[in-house]
Write a structure and sequence with these properties.
Elements lengths: L10 E6 L4 E6 L5 H12 L6 E6 L7 E3 L19 E6 L21 H6 L4 H8 L8 H18 L7 E4 L2 E12 L12 E6 L9 E2 L2 E2 L8 E4 L4 E3 L15
Parallel strand pairs: 1-5
Antiparallel strand pairs: 1-2, 3-4, 3-5, 6-7, 6-12, 7-8, 8-11, 9-10
């Protein structure tokens, strides 16, 4: 460990992991445990599995950032030079989300013609009560929904490359990368979906749906939402933790 004086001024570092790379401002008074908690939503690595090391330009070897009591040791004890690289590796102790799941187990699928003949199904109910696509007015209703969705795109000023955040989660920010219909997703035919490249890997895809690509992003940085769930505006990329910037 290479000790140095702790300062109150935030220091810009380059945070890198196997799935992300971004510049963040670090407060030297944070403890190691505090830092790891803030790194989890950025890297996707749980604090208990994080291995931290610091590489300063012109330095031959990386410095390991670790301590017996990570809840009390401040990271300002290390030489946090501006734009040094803070590497976040995984110890491999986290849950393996690529492990086989129940979805890979073969399951029985009823043939469509057999399902259509059964009297007690949801499909039979919809046919009898003229619900959904069995409603004689269904095509007109679907067209109206599509028109209203496009009008919402205009009203919300949703445009390509515009900065935005998700209404339900304002800290999930990014840039508009796609505006248009997606046949692979449910909803009124022709109604628009909004594709967003998120600043952090908290998405669900890389800009593709069921093998069809709509835009290009890094893994887990892409997401598709309806226009009503997007707010466009001057939303710059957040720091490591927005509410800590004034501490």
């Amino acid at each position: 460990m290479s000790p140095s004086l702790t300062t109150a001024r935030d220091i810009p570092l380059l945070i890198t992991s196997h799935s992300s790379s971004s510049e963040r401002r670090i407060t030297p008074s944070w403890t190691i445990a505090n830092l790891k908690a803030k790194l989890e939503p950025i890297t996707g690595i749980p604090p208990s599995s994080q291995i931290l090391s610091l590489h300063t330009p012109g330095q031959a070897q990386e410095i390991s950032i670790e301590a017996e009591d990570e809840d009390s040791v401040e990271i300002g004890q290390w030489s946090l030079a501006p734009y040094a690289e803070l590497k976040v590796r995984s110890s491999g102790n986290e849950i393996n989300f690529n492990a086989p799941t129940l979805s890979s187990v073969p399951k029985y699928e009823m043939p469509e013609d057999v399902y259509e003949k059964r009297p007690e199904t949801v499909l039979a109910y919809k046919k009898a009560h003229k619900v959904g696509r069995f409603d004689p007015n269904a095509p007109e209703i679907q067209q109206r929904k599509a028109r209203e969705a496009w009008e919402e795109v205009e009203q919300r000023n949703i445009k390509m490359a515009a900065r935005c955040h998700l209404l339900a989660e304002p800290t999930r920010r990014g840039s508009i990368a796609y505006i248009g219909p997606i046949d692979e997703l449910p909803g009124a035919p022709g109604a628009p979906w909004i594709g967003i490249i998120l600043d952090e890997p908290t998405g669900k895809n890389d800009g593709s749906i069921k093998g069809k690509r709509y835009f290009q992003s890094e893994r887990n940085r892409g997401v598709f939402v309806r226009p009503g769930f997007v707010q466009v505006g001057d939303f710059p990329e957040l720091g490591l933790l927005a509410d800590d910037e004034e501490l």
